[in-house]
Specification:
By secondary structure, the protein is an alpha+beta fold. Helix content is 26%, strand content 27%. It binds copper (II) ion.
Length: 84
């Protein structure tokens, strides 16, 4: 089975707890193999089995993290889980 890598830009990721939440949310999706979250960049790289990218962004939105597929400038505004 082919593994696809998708880069997601995530808003509101401010601390290690956000990273953990995001990892848990993404790894909980069926077909996700690994998740590499980079707090500094505000991005996550997801290795998955051809999962719909909307499934990832919807799951993140439900967890309180607006996100979009692809690299983009980090949005500074959104408060994270800790409001930092
Ligand atoms: Cu946080």
């Amino acid at each position: 089975m082919n593994t696809t890598q998708t880069l997601i830009s995530i808003d509101g990721m401010t601390c290690a707890h956000c990273v953990l939440t995001i990892r848990t949310v993404l790894l909980g999706l069926p077909g996700v193999r690994s998740v590499d979250v980079r707090l500094r960049d505000g991005t996550a790289t997801v290795a998955h089995d051809g999962l719909a990218t909307t499934a990832m962004t919807n799951a993140l939105a439900d967890a309180g993290f607006p996100s979009r597929v692809g690299a983009s400038k980090r949005m500074p505004a959104a408060p994270g889980c800790c409001g930092a």
